[in-house]
Amino acid sequence: MLNSDAIWIIFTGFLVASSCGLLGSFLVLRRMAMVGDAISHAVLPGIVIGYLVTGSREPWVMVPAAGLLGILTSSIIEVLHQKAGVQSDASIGVTFTFLFAIGVILISMFAGQVDLDQECVLYGEIAYLPLNPLVLANGWSLGPKMVWILMPLLLLISLGIYLFYTPLSLTAFDPAFALSIGIKVGFWHQVLMGAVSFTTVASFDSVGAILVVAFLVVIPSTAWLLSQRLPLMLGLCLLLAFIISVTGYLAASWLNVSISGAMACSSGVLFVLAFLFSPLEGRVWLAFKKKSQQIGSI
Amino acid sequence: MNIAEIIGTNNFMVLFGSVLLTASTAVIGSFSYVRRQALIGDAIAHALLPGICLAFMWTGSKSPWVLVPGAILTGWLSVLCQETIVKYSKIKEDAALGIVLSVFFAFGIVLLTYIQQHGYASQSGLDKFLFGNAASLLLPDLLSFGLLALAVLLLVLAFYKEFLTYSFDPNFAETVGMSSTWLRLLLNGLTVVAVVIGIQAVGVVLMAAVLITPAAAARSWTHRLPTMILLAAAFSGSSAIAGVSISMLASGLPTGPLIVVVLSLIAVVSFLFAPQKGLISRNRRQQFHQRKINRENLLKLLYHHRSLGLKAIYERRPMEEQSIKKGLAELQQAQWVRQENKAYQLTEPGEKAARRIIKLHRLWEYYLSHKVHIAPDHVHEDAEMMEHILTPEMEALLEKELGFPEKDPHQSEIPYH
């Protein structure tokens, strides 16, 4: 059942899930989960323009182009909210739909030249991944090309979080305090947004935007229900990423359905389990504790 | 193609239909905006997919009369899940939305691929429901969604007072005898139906725009809900007309994204240029106050030092030299400051104005220490701000309330003339 293609798919799933989980932790703590959703859609015009300008769909064109769009998106959201007094949720909604609409129009204007459509951005399919391997000049195959983008990305993200743990975590928990001790909150905000856009683009070529959102939001939320400390939460994200990619793949090949979809569903199941049974605040656990306390008091 | 051809019956139906669909969605969106749930539409739109798939798997039919109830069911379930997550865990609204959105949609994709793999007849195009395209709406579809839109509008009219009260303040609605649980369920239900309608015009990703962009744009122009609802409906109606027309003239361009781009441009213009709430008028107001504060600080400085050269002023005011020059020029024009031998001095009226600011400062310090009981060494910062804000009415009130005290908490004299 687990041939080499399967191993590559699970490994890619794990890479995407852990990159998204680590970055998503900071988004969820800063109550900016939906900004991740917005960016994952708003990068579409960046991808199209990048493609039209260079004529290439290679990751080294797509990733910077979409990264720029991601930073632009978060800046527009910021300006609308801070300067024009639009509700923060609404400024997210207005911005990403505008950019996505421009992307779709660009695609249909240059329909003959662009091999993209909005369905492929939404769905993506990790199953086709091994069809695009990185082959060396002497004929050796090094596995899917995307793995060679995603692996350094995960290393970079982990290293970044390790080196800049203090400013990142302070900005996430208490931006006012962070500002008062001289941390450049705005700068770290942009760094985070840039990292989210890069990861989104690098990921959704292989897994689709919705799976990216699932990994960005569901994995950190589940980890947060299970822990009270950020380092533990980040570690749990990696563990969850592993469980999700393995169980998602197995379920998908058993039922013969979309692998990306199954992985996201698997993360949903884990979230529900944590919501009900987390030893910290799971509903079932709390109800049980309450009951035993009542019995004790009688 | 001339105008008469454009108003051919079918095109006219499409135009009329899209206006009805988008405008009725915008009406419900205004309530979502007021309830600070701008992105709920995005989550609902994605949560329709599993409902559509399940309805199809159960009945094998692709008729909207089968798919719409299924979609409404899972859409409504998604709102319920989001509310449950927020209520019973430490997960916040935004993350709960993201969770519901992605997991429901992923489940829908799993079902969709299951349907494709397991030999259901005539399954192709099931997800077209989600990539709505107003231009390709057929007459029977238009009729059923048009009826749905009318039903939504009628319900809003019938329960307008209740919705208004509940949207602004659920607790107040409860105290005046309305059932906030029922109102919440009804409003959520209407939002789901509005999303089902709007998705026909623009598709799943752009759905959030049809629901919320008109409301956000309208909010810049008014602070009254009835006006806001009408404006939002007008904005989205005219965007629908513009979008459909452009799409018909430049054939090949998709209608939905065109509608959303026009809508977004209206919103951008509103955010920038609306009087009162627009970005430009906010900035202008802010600059006006900034310049006033700048001028008043210079007045105080010159009052304390009698006569100062430009360089001495630079040293004493931690501000950009450019804005100091500008402030001095404005003061000279008002004839509050005159220049003698390169030194700046206050004129008679200038001195009077300076004394008033110092009086306000010291009165406020007195007020804070005697009425609010704040320690005298903590009152200066606050007074430094209030001296620029206090209006003549508040000034008179303070003087009366405090009984014209002679000295401030630091034993400096309070000048009344």
Structure description:
The complex is a heterodimer of chains A (298) and B (417). The relative contact order of chain A is 0.16. Chain A has a domain of 205 residues: ABC transporter involved in vitamin B12 uptake, BtuC. Chain A is mostly helical. In chain A, helix 3 crosses helix 4. With 417 residues, chain B is mainly alpha-helical. Chain B folds into three domains: 205 residues, ABC transporter involved in vitamin B12 uptake, BtuC (Orthogonal Bundle), CATH 1.10.3470.10; 66 residues, Arc Repressor Mutant, subunit A (Orthogonal Bundle), CATH 1.10.10; 52 residues, Diphtheria Toxin Repressor, domain 2, CATH 1.10.60. Helices cover 73% and strands 3% of the residues of chain B. Chain B has 18 helices and three strands. A three-stranded antiparallel β-sheet of chain B has the order 1-3-2. In chain B, a hairpin with a 2-residue loop joins strand 2 and strand 3. In chain B, helix 2 packs antiparallel against helix 9. Chains A and B meet through helix 2, helix 5, helix 6, helix 11 and helix 13 of A and helix 3, helix 5, helix 10, helix 12 and helix 13 of B.
Write the layout of secondary structure elements.
The complex is a heterodimer of chains A (298) and B (417).
Chain A: H1 4-29, H2 33-42, H3 44-54, H4 59-82, H5 88-109, H6 118-122, E1 133-135, E2 141-144, H7 145-163, H8 165-173, H9 175-180, H10 185-207, H11 209-226, H12 230-255, H13 259-277, H14 283-297
Antiparallel strand pairs in A: 1-2
Helix pairs in contact in A: 1-7, 1-10, 1-11, 1-12, 2-4, 2-5, 2-11, 3-4, 3-5, 4-5, 4-10, 7-10, 10-11, 11-12, 11-13, 12-13
Chain B: H1 3-6, H2 9-34, H3 40-59, H4 64-88, H5 93-117, H6 139-158, H7 160-168, H8 170-175, H9 180-202, H10 207-219, H11 225-249, H12 255-273, H13 279-305, E1 307-309, H14 310-316, H15 321-333, E2 337-340, E3 343-346, H16 348-370, H17 380-386, H18 392-402
Antiparallel strand pairs in B: 1-3, 2-3
